[in-house]
Amino acid sequence: MTEPTRRVRRSPEQARRLILDTAQALIARTGPEGLRLQDIAAEAGISHSLILHHFTNRAGLVRALTQQASAELKDRLLAAMAQPESSPEDLLDRVFDAFAGGLAQRLAWLAVMDPDGGVEEPATMRHEIADTLYKRRLAAAPGRAITREDTQWLVHLVAVAAFGEALYGARLRRGANGGEAGARRFRTWFAALIREHNQGH
Amino acid sequence: MTEPTRRVRRSPEQARRLILDTAQALIARTGPEGLRLQDIAAEAGISHSLILHHFTNRAGLVRALTQQASAELKDRLLAAMAQPESSPEDLLDRVFDAFAGGLAQRLAWLAVMDPDGGVEEPATMRHEIADTLYKRRLAAAPGRAITREDTQWLVHLVAVAAFGEALYGARLRRGANGGEAGARRFRTWFAALIREHNQGH
DNA sequence: GGATATACTGACAAAATTGTCAATATAATT
DNA sequence: AATTATATTGACAATTTTGTCAGTATATCC
Fold first, then answer.
1. Cα distance from A68 to chain B (closest Cα, Å)?
2. Three-class SS state of B56
3. A56 touches strand D (CB under 7 A)
4. Contact yes or no for B150 and A32 at CB 8 A
5. Is the dihedral of CA B43, B48, B51, B53 positive or negative?
6. Over residues A86-97, mean pLDDT
7. Which residues of chain A make contact with B195, given a CB cutoff of 8 A?
8. Model pLDDT, residue A119
C-alpha cells in the first residue's frame, strides 16, 4: 500500500508568485535557455503541470514575466527618485543600481522575445520621472535656462546608459577597468559630466 | 528509377559563412527562440546535418556566432572611426548606427547565453578607439586639459548609451518621441552635450 | 579518366519539451 | 462531519529538436 503523496496547497497568488520569482531567477542565472517549464518546476519544487494550470500557456507565463519585470523596474526607479534631497551622484548611483542584479538581462531578453509586451509602462514612467526631475532642477538652479526637453533627454540618456552598462558594461571594461572599481569610477565620471552640464552654459 | 539528388558543394568557408549569416538573420528576426538547427537549415536551403558537420555541436555554432557578432561590431566601429575629419555629430551618428540593425540584440542575447564567449575583443578594441580619439581631441583643442581617462570614459559612455538605445530606446521613447524622429533628436542632443563637455572647463 | 577526399543528404535514434486529462489531496464551507 | 471547490500531481501523448551514421554526389588530383 502506497503512502498518499504529501502536498502543499498555496493560494493562487502565492503559487503564481513562487513560479514567477523562480522563473526570473532562472533567467537571470541561466539566460534565455533557462526558461523551460520542467526546469522552473524542478527549482520551485512543483510539477510543471502546475505552471500550465496557473498560466495556461508557456506564452502566458512569458507575458506575466514581462509585466513583472517591467513593474519591478518601475518600482525601483520610483524608489530611486523618492529621496528628494540627495546629490545627483547618489541619484545616479541608485538609478544604475536599479538595472543591476539581472533585471537588465531579463528586460533585454523579454524585450527581444516579446517585442510588444508591456508597452505602456516605460514611456509614461519616464515622463513622470522627467517632470519630477525638471521641477527639482529648476528649484536647484533658479537662474539657469533649463528646458523641459533637456531634462527629458537627460533622463533618457541616463536610462539607456544604465541599461547598456548593466548589460554589456563589464564586458567593455574588461582589463584595466574591469570589476567593481571600474564600474564605480565610471559612475562618478558620469555624475561629474551631468553636474557640469547642469551648471555650465 | 530515381534521379540522383542535385547538390551544391561549397568550400568549408563558404558553407560556414552561409550558415552563420542566416543564423544571425534569424536571431535578429525571430529572437532567441529562433535558433533551431532545423529552422536555420530550412532558411539556408540545406539539411540540418550540414550545420552539425561544420560546427560539431549546437554549442559550437553558438560560439562561432558570438565571435562573428563581436567581430562585426569591431568592424563597424573601426569603420566609424576611420573618417578622421568629420564632426563629432557625424561620428556619434555612425557609432549609434553600428549597434542598429539587430546587432545589439544579437550581442545582448549571445552575451546572456554565453557569458564568457568572445572575451578579449571588446576591451582591447575600446582601448584602441579611446587612444585614437584621444589624439584627435588633443589636436582639435590644443589648449584644453584633456586627460586620457576622460576620453576613455567618454568612449565608454557612448558605447553603453548606443547599446542601450538600440536595445531599449525605442521602448522608452514610446509616445511623444517614439519612432525615427525621436531617435535622431536624442542623438543631436547627446552630440551637443559632448561638444559642450569638450569645450567647457 | 579513374581514384580520392569530403561536403552533403536522408533516415533514424534518443531525448526533451509542451500540453492534456483524469485522479487526488487539501482547505474552506455548510 | 460531510460536502464542495480547486490546487496539485502523475502518467501519457504529440511534437520538436539535437545528434548519429551510413551512403551519395561532387570537386580535385594523379
1. 16
2. coil
3. no
4. no
5. negative
6. 88
7. none
8. 54
pLDDT, tens digit, for every residue of A142-195? 777 789 999 999 999 999 999 999 988 888 887 777 788 999 999 999 999 999
Which nucleotides of strand D come closer than 7 angstroms to any CB of the protein? 6-11, 16-22, 24-27
Q: Which residue has the higher pLDDT, A84 or B97?
A: B97
Residues B163 and A167: beta-carbon distance below 8 Å: yes
Provide the grid cell at A123: 514611456
Supply the pLDDT for residue A114.
67
Alpha-carbon distance of B171 to B164, in angstroms, equals: 11
Cross-chain residue pair A156–B172, CB shorter than 8 Å: yes
Among B105, B115, B126, the residue with its CB nearest the CB of A172 is B126
Helix (H) or strand (E) holding A29, with range, is: helix A12-30
Q: Which DSSP symbol is given to B5? A: P
Say what the pLDDT of residue B133 is: 84
Encode pLDDT of A141-155 as tens digits.
Answer: 777 778 999 999 999
Of A164, A186, A200, the CB nearest to B164: A164
